[in-house]
Amino acid sequence: MRNLTSSTSQLPATGIPAEALSNSLARGLLLSSGAALASLLIPGLVAAADLTTRVLTNETPQIPSQCYTKTKDDHGRVVNPCYTCHRRPVRPNYTDDSDLQLVYDFPAPAEENPWKNLYTDRRAAIERISDAEILAYIRESNYVDSSGGIIPVKSLAELPEGRDYNGDGRWDGFVPDAWFDFDDQGFDRTPDGGYSGWRAFAYTPFPSTHWPTNGSTADALIRLPDIFQRDLNGDFNLSVYKTNLAIVEAMIREADVPIEPVEERALGGVDLNKNGLLDTASLVKYDWSPRDGRLMWYVGQALQAQRSGEVHLAARLYPEGTEFLQSLRYIDFDERAVNHLSARMKELRYARKAYWMTYAALDLQAAEETKEKHDFPDRVETVRGNMESGVSNGAGWVYAGMIEDAGGQLRPQTYEELAHCVGCHGGMGANTDASLAFPRKLDVESFQRGWYHWSQKSLAGLPEPVLDKGEPEYAFYLKANRAGDEFRANQEILALFFDDQGEPIPEMLDVLNRDIGFLLFASKPRALALNKAYKRIVERQSFHLGRDATVAPVGAQVHPWVADGTPTGVDEPLP
Asked: 390: which residues sit within 8 A by CB, 6+ positions away?
């Protein structure tokens, strides 16, 4: 996103944690900003108790830290980690930002790198945390209590001072309602044996910030509105719901999706397999071209809603009311060092598609943003919303979420913390209707047809995803970036997958092709160190300075300041 309209008071970034002051480069950065001088007197940066403020300490929280990475390796060769996010889009994503592979394109307030946590040296600090202490911490749930209740639900009901944005005395925002208790079809079950509507899906993690070895484990759940879960009589019907989820999957992937056999007449008379008959279907056939008269339909009550115009269907777009839930967690592991989700959540992220936008509206919006950027290159986009109602990406989606407080319990995210979400879920070429995970869902040949939670089966043993052109995706990334993360700080991947000249080792790429766990999993020592490093960020509540779980400073790998228009050195954008 490049131009969301609203107004907000903004202040320059202020200071860095005291741990970073021993780093000369970070100290120089700090002194370069007069507004930051006051932070020298602050031993630790802890967010104020009032979470309702819309005043920004970082004017551009939607520009992630990875965008400041330097594009040269230790041998002086140009590398390109930028292509993963910034690329030529597929309609109806009309944001072609592949030019960002070639040049740094920041508004003036973003030219100075605001993510000061990247310059923090946490090595001495994490040595004071024992392995037993951090393992006990991450293995204690901050989501479900000993009686089975959802902890954040209780905390939001109490609504401490400084968390009521609209002043009505109650919390009106996102309230978690997933129980994280999944059956053999990936459905989340409630304590009374019912269905919450959430369904977990397995997916191949997006390169490379989202790999466990680079800091966090994560999952993903999807939920369609209630009418997608009900038959023509208005009763909850699991077959109807599974079929509608398969239809959404087919539309997002623009591909056929095999399903368990269903009777088409019972679901509303929709010819799912497109064989010209109403019979037993074992496939949702993707065949959608409205201009040629080829339409597709939901089933059950959603069919009636689609016919009346209440909900919509189009390729690579979710119907309005679609929700996503993601828990971001620490890295737990077993005796074989297979990485798993920790019981403790770092964050709980929520997204809801609030309204529908047509292809034409999305195209016009992208064109307006391009013109805005051209006419006013230094104008900072402002994200609409607040910490209670969530923030908007301007394309139909609203984002909300919770994050750890200093004591490790989940609290609502501030406006600034939520605005950070828009960076990856706004106008970015890699997105499919603002999403990254669901288009990467595992196919029907996978365990439980790809509908499962990582607590049911880990990433171990998954084959490497393949790009449209047939090349293994993670190997392509390693060759393009010559490292396993944007900051070039993951020494494990560098040592395991690259030779002394920084060239990928073919034999290791062959192993990766068979099992992505060899690349994606952190060793036990690395997992422990990353967990401890992030806990230090939590204790200081310095998320506004960066959430990357870096152990040692990565200042040498990122630009402290970069002028708009500075070339990256990449000659041609990767597809």
From this structure: 173, 174, 350, 352, 398, 399, 400, 418
